Amino acid sequence: MRALAKELHLSLFKFVGNPMQRGFWPTSLLFQRLRTCGSQCGHPELEHAPLFLYGHSNGTGFSAIFAANEPARVWGWISMRPGITFQVYQPRAAQVPGLVIFGENDPFLLRPSPAENLAVVPTIRKRHDAVWNMAVEPKTGHGPGEKTWPLVFSFLRHSFDARVPADADCSQGPVKLNALAVDRGLLGRNWDSTAGGYQSLSVFPFADFPGEKAAASWLLNAAYADDWQTFQRDGEVASPR
Question: Which domains does the chain have, with CATH numbers?
């Protein structure tokens, strides 16, 4: 993560403790802490930096809800193994690229049923044209492992390229992020909970998807779609592009 941050000229920042770690309120606290940290480390531009949010388990409350409350400031976000999927259902974050990663054997996915929990992304896609996708990591539980991170980094990198303008300068104030055209993405078939395990999931250009476009996983571009497809087929991404 540090190597990727250095390559993309990013800062790493985390919260420990409630209320922000679980993400419910106040969203202003993150901006206050960024301002304080930026002042202390000689980077006052951090106050206005575009953000990528990652939350694990109840930390999904942070990544999804903050993106919903401040969509203009967030270039992308991830929910890793959400503890409660109602935290993920955030219509105001629909136009912020989102990735929800489940573990096939996660006990939280099994309650009340995998089908009900996995429905959160297709539902928000159908109702709000969300630029979201989901992945299910086969044979894994509640915690991410080493094989999970390359997909996370792929999504971070490609959402950064798509959303943050090349000439962005947060020393001049908040950056205006690029909007995404839904019909320019790709669509992937969602993982089938009845089949389970590793699955070869088809990917199509938006116009060519043969099923229900509104329910399929929305994928940023061909390179990310290839990593996503490989992850679902093999359980890992060897060399994310």
Answer: 2-182 (3.40.50)
